[in-house]
Design goal:
Number of strands: 10
Oligomer: single chain
Radius of gyration: 18 Å
Distance between the termini: 15 Å
CATH superfamily: Divalent-metal-dependent TIM barrel enzymes
Order of helices and strands: EHHEHEHEHEHEHHHEEEHEH
Bound molecules: zinc ion
Helix content: 40-55%
Number of helices: 11
Strand content: 15-25%
CATH class: Alpha Beta
CATH topology: TIM Barrel
Structural class: alpha/beta
Length: 285
């Protein structure tokens, strides 16, 4: 049974260890025995075709599971039609880059739910995703899985229920479940294993066992206020949580094979390695 552990972007130690370039990422991750990497396009999709090709080969040789995070300015639920149309375009750009580097999954934020009702925002987001998946199909990219992400702030679209609803738009969609976001948004909900188990049961009931097993996971401890997410922390935190041990115990219990991307603040690789070591120990016993 395979659970993949990896990082979002580059940790502080990537640079202090003397690395500087994307093409050095596979070698760096090998030092931590990690096998997943989420390439960040939060501020735009920019990577030359040659570099993408070179990275694809190195990542493939290293057995890395790759994903791509799409731009933050995507707004599936925008009340402006032109912004929704542009979002389809950005999703296509991200999927094209994913194809070029050999990634199968692209993570997408839904947008805000501030100006209209959550239900209206959800309907707009569904429609934009329908158009996006149609676009990917016509461009020969239907094998790239769109992963709508659960969000950390109250005024963003992206509760787990909303994300599962969005995943019903197309059976190729995989939820990106950010447990730090859920915990922050719900003011510390995930304080024990049972709460994690509830979420997995929700996913299974809505999307079926197979899709539940394959979910994409973002994990970090996150500081929050009444409005939700404030900032990402490291595993040194013992105030806000959630605990990775509870998550991994439930993953083992539910026989899941997710990709787990650690988003700790600067210590992604170290903390991902901590998670992997814990998981290896519990799956042996
Ligand atoms: Zn995200």
């Amino acid at each position: 049974m395979a659970v993949y552990f990896g990082v979002a972007g580059n940790s502080a130690s990537f640079f202090t260890m003397g690395y500087a370039h994307l093409l050095q990422v596979p070698e760096y991750l090998k030092k931590f025995e990690l096998d997943a990497y989420e390439y960040q396009c939060g501020h735009g999709v920019r990577l030359s075709e040659q570099k993408a090709k070179d990275f694809k080969k190195l990542a493939n040789d290293a057995g890395l599971k790759l994903s791509v995070h799409s731009p933050y300015y995507i707004s599936l639920s925008s009340i402006e039609e032109t912004k929704r149309e542009k979002s389809v375009e950005y999703i296509l750009q991200t999927a094209t880059l994913a194809e070029n580097i050999g990634a199968k999954r692209i993570v997408v934020h839904s947008g805000s739910a501030g100006k209209i009702s959550r239900q209206e925002a959800l309907e707009l987001a569904k429609d934009t995703l329908k158009k996006s998946v149609f676009k990917l199909k016509t461009e020969g990219l239907s094998h790239i899985n769109i992963c709508p992400e659960t969000m950390g702030k109250i005024n963003q679209l992206g509760t787990l229920a909303e994300v599962l609803e969005l995943c019903l738009v197309d059976e190729s969609f995989i939820p990106c479940v950010d447990f730090g976001h859920i915990n922050a948004r719900e003011q510390g909900l995930l304080r024990n294993k049972e709460e994690f188990l509830n979420l997995f049961d929700n996913i299974e009931n809505k999307l079926g066992t197979e899709r539940m097993k394959q979910i994409h996971i973002h994990f970090s401890k996150i500081q929050y206020t009444a409005g939700g997410e404030q900032r990402h922390l490291t595993f040194a935190d013992n105030v806000y949580g959630p605990n990775y041990e509870d998550l991994l115990d439930v993953i083992l219990k539910k026989h899941c094979e997710p990709v787990i991307i650690c988003e700790s603040d600067g210590t992604q690789a170290e903390d991902a390695k901590t998670m992997k070591t814990y998981y290896q120990n519990i799956s042996k016993s």
